[in-house]
Design a protein that fits this description.
73% helix; Marvel; transmembrane helix; MARVEL-CKLF_proteins; cell membrane; mainly alpha
Length: 135
């Protein structure tokens, strides 16, 4: 949802006059669409049908890539915001897009952390993994 806000806020400005916002648009659209695709895959449990694909590793790589590229998008969007913009509305929308890009960056960073822990199995308890059912 936050990536969609970045996309909508930038798209509502005169972003075509500033090439830096093209990169922000690409990152926000690409990762919003791929996140929706991953959501549908997990919602429909298609990841269980394609058991050959190491889904935990795929999620770590996806989230890490999204984090790094959203860092660049956030820095680009923040650096391109100018208080003396063409119109006050563009300034407000670009500043809000920078804020939401920062939130998306933090969210993908947290997702990277949790997907890495799930991939490595760091959240499991050794005692519960040794218990067998003797009933």
């Amino acid at each position: 949802v936050l990536g969609l806000l970045v996309w909508a806020l930038i798209a509502d400005t005169t972003y075509h006059l500033h090439p830096a916002y093209g990169w922000v648009m690409f990152v926000s659209i690409f990762f919003w669409i791929t996140t929706v695709i991953f959501f549908v895959i997990y919602l429909l449990q298609l990841h269980l049908k394609f058991y050959v694909i190491p889904w935990p590793l795929v999620l770590v790589i996806f989230n890490a890539t999204a984090t790094v590229l959203y860092i660049t998008a956030f820095v680009t969007c923040s650096a391109a915001v100018q208080p003396t913009s063409w119109s006050q509305w563009d300034y407000n929308r670009r500043a809000a897009a920078s804020f939401f890009a920062c939130l998306v960056m933090i969210t993908y960073g947290a997702s990277t952390f949790f997907s890495f822990r799930a991939w490595k199995g760091l959240g499991s308890n050794a005692a519960t993994s040794q218990v067998t059912n003797h009933a």
